Amino acid sequence: MTTAEAYVEFAQREAHGVSPTYERLSYAVADDHALLALLDALPPAKRQPNLLFGVVRWLGGPVDDPAAFHDYVLAHWPVIDTELKRRATQTNEAGRCAVLLPVLAALPQPLALLEVGASAGLCLYPDRYAYRYGEHQVGDGVPILECAASGLTPPGRVPQVVWRAGLDLNPLDVTDPDDVSWLDALIWPEHAHRRSRLRAAAAVAAADPPLLVRGDLVDDLPALAARAPADATLVIFHTSVLYQVPAARRDAFVRLVGELPGHWIANEAPEVLPYEGLPDLPDAALHNVLALDGKPLAWTRGHGQAMTWFG
């Protein structure tokens, strides 16, 4: 897929109906030969729309007007290029806990959670948040995570978590204003509710910081998993992470996680972690597949805003 095609696909499958600003901007970049030439000089993983738009927003540049965006990127390319190469799309969306909750609540309690690609660890607190599936609410914490769920009887409780740890190549610190500002820049322009959610979830994490370890998802996972308490159910999980991992390394991770004790929850795009015999998508938007121990369970939206259980 060319860079232009990737931006068109982002506009059609991810931004459409979710972020008019990013939809319009993605189409503009796809037709902008000057910007495409700059992007094509980058490593493939550094060309993605979310990363480019997030860096420009973090630097204070305009994203609401494609012409102004074009001028800003050309004028500031050296610093943009530097930030693109050193940063990653570490969108730490606590809302994803809403699609993890039905699986976590059904496992033998208590749980020891280990998130791969944890960013700042905001998804390590599913027991501290509250959830609303239509008219059904679970838990009494903050923030309240809204999820449109179909084909699913919502869980009656939040899980009991006695240990939480994260593994990341570049873990972020919710007590560091620079790290939080980067997480904020990755939230799409219109999503004020996600900004409020980030602040609330960051306060939860800052009050009881998780164990975050800088490391590789293959080389360093066994040692961290071994630190989990033996009297808890170990759950290794990840959401929208493996697309950033080279295919061979991804395969090595899948083999490894299948050999470790406990359970494995994956929430990744079907082209990143493929499964046979998946039902049809509920619509044309980009969806992840939620799976437990390699068994696909549901279609989920990227920010945890919806899930369709397979039944």
Textual characterization of the structure:
The chain is of the alpha/beta class and 311 residues long. It has two domains: 3-86, no CATH class; 94-309, Rossmann fold (3-Layer(aba) Sandwich), CATH 3.40.50. It is built from eleven helices and twelve strands. The strands form two sheets. Strands 5-12-11-10-9-8-1-6-7 form a nine-stranded mixed β-sheet. Strand 2 (130-133) and strand 3 form a beta hairpin.
CATH class of the largest domain: Alpha Beta
SS-based class: alpha/beta
Shape: globular
Which fold name fills CATH's third level, the topology of the largest domain?
Rossmann fold
Mean pLDDT: 95
Radius of gyration of CA atoms, rounded to a whole number: 19 Å
| Fraction of residues in helix | 25-40%
Low-confidence stretches: none
The CATH architecture of the largest domain comes to: 3-Layer(aba) Sandwich
**CA-to-CA gap between the ends?**
34 Å
User: Tell me about the biggest sheet?
Assistant: 9 strands, mixed
Q: Write the H/E string, N to C.
A: HHHHHHHEEEEEEHHEHEHEEEE
What are the defining features of this structure?
single chain; alpha/beta; Rossmann fold; 2 domains; 9-stranded mixed beta sheet; 11 helices; 12 strands
In short:
The protein has 311 residues and is α/β, with parallel strands linked by helices.
Secondary-structure map:
Layout (H helix, E strand, L loop, with lengths): L2 H13 L4 H11 L2 H8 L8 H10 L7 H10 L1 H10 L10 H10 L4 E6 L13 E4 L2 E3 L5 E3 L1 E3 L10 E8 L8 H9 L6 H16 L3 E4 L6 H5 L7 E7 L7 H13 L3 E6 L18 E6 L2 E7 L4 E4 L2
Parallel strand pairs: 1-6, 1-8, 2-4, 5-12, 6-7, 8-9
Antiparallel strand pairs: 2-3, 9-10, 10-11, 11-12
Helix pairs in contact: 1-2, 4-8
